[in-house]
Amino acid sequence: MPRSPLIARTLPALRRALEGLRARKATVALVPTMGALHDGHIALVRLAKRRASRVVVSIFVNPAQFAPNEDFGAYPRTWKADLAKLAAEGVDLVWNPDVKTMYPEGFATKILTEGPATTGLEDRFRPHFFGGVTTVVGKLFTQTRPDMAFFGEKDFQQLKVVTRIARDLDLGVKVTGAPTVRERDGLAMSSRNVYLSAEQRAAAPVLYRSLKDAARRLKAGDDIKATMKAAADAITEGGFALDYVEARHAESLAPVASLKDGPLRLLVAAKIGNTRLIDNVGV
Ligand code: AMP
């Protein structure tokens, strides 16, 4: 039987647990999650285990990054299964605060970022989103004081934003991104995939397929505008309502006019029924 991780739900419990973990100069890695863990999260945990001697996973469904009309209430919560998975990976500590612990009465502070958080991608369609992410990630970093933290490339803009806050606030955390883990048919794993009906699930791989096709065309020298238009058409014909599908600079996320402006990243966000999915690939 794998040993169950320590579980902390209050700040004093977290502090005590971290003091124990930090003994003998251990290096501590943090993997922030909202739970409903899948193989994408587990890949981050495994990478963290390889790089650090102690691994902390946070599970907190962060209300601040959901708009009132979004799925905070419906977001899948699978605590028992999550804990079993983390035990099997040999995770040392699970930080699982409740909303009142994270945002006590009167909470009035927000971390606001520019740069990658204002590039007209997720921020354009979910204007509340990055304020919520940066504030909670800033808090998770100061609460756990990790030496390193791991985030998925699946949320590519988010990865750039949290890398920025770690640097800008001198938090001493090395942020590392990890490649997107996919289902066999290419669909990026996501806690939200459980919302998909069988029909929607069958349609969903069109996102990745269209991005890969576009990447191939761009590498072969095709025009960016025409290529991205073809990707948009394929995604729409596949049953999605598109928020955006764009070619951007892979570091700055600035718009690009040609492959020479690269390295490029192709990013998509689209809705099928009520479910909004995102994905991205490198070129
Ligand atoms: P979430 O629980 O959705 O907030 O995600 C927690 C972390 O897991 C974030 O850093 C995500 O980017 C990462 N993540 C989510 N899905 C995947 C995936 N399919 N592959 C790799 N990382 C992922």
Annotation keywords:
globular; 10 helices; single chain; alpha/beta; Pantoate--beta-alanine Ligase, Chain: A,domain 2; Rossmann fold; 2 domains; six-stranded parallel β-sheet; 283 residues; binds adenosine monophosphate
What does this structure look like?
The termini are far apart. The mean pLDDT is 97. The protein is α/β, with parallel strands linked by helices and 283 residues long. A six-stranded parallel sheet has the order 1-4-3-2-5-6, sandwiched between helices. A three-stranded antiparallel sheet has the order 7-8-9, covered by helices on one side. Helix 6 (129-144) packs across helix 7 (156-168). It is globular. Helix content is 37%, strand content 19%. Strand 2, helix 2 (39-51) and strand 3 (54-59) form a beta-alpha-beta unit. It folds into two domains: 6-178, 3-Layer(aba) Sandwich (Rossmann fold); 191-282, Pantoate--beta-alanine Ligase, Chain: A,domain 2 (2-Layer Sandwich). It binds adenosine monophosphate (AMP). Adenosine monophosphate (AMP) binds next to helix 2 and strand 5. Residues 33-34, 40-41, 43-44, 151-152, 154-155, 178, 180-181, 188-191 line the site of adenosine monophosphate (AMP).
